Amino acid sequence: MPRALARFRVRHPGVTLTHEEGRTPALLSRLAEGGLDLAVVSTTGGALPDGVHDLHHLLDETLYVALPAGHPLAAEPELRLPRPAAEDWISGSPHIEGSLLRLALRHGFRPHVAHVVAEWTAKQGYVAAGLGIALVPQLAAESARPDITLVPLRDGAAPAREVYAATARGRAVTSAATAFLAALRHAAAGLDPCSPPARSPALQGETRPMAEQQMHADEAATDETLVRRLVAAQFPAWAGLPVRRVDTAGTANAMYRLGADMVVRLPRLASSAEDVEAELRWLPRLAAALPVAVPEPLGKGGPGEGYPFAWSVFRWLAGSTPEVGVPLAGPALFAEDVARFLTALREVDPAGAPAAYRSEPLARRDARTREVIARLRGTVDEGAATAVWDAALRAPAWGRAPVWTHGDLQPGNVLVDGGRLGAVIDFGCMGLGDPAVDLISAWYLMDAAARDAFRTALGTAADDAMWARGRGWALSIALDELDYYRRTNPRMARTARHVLGQLTRAA
Question: Residue 114 has what pLDDT?
Answer without folding.
Answer: 87
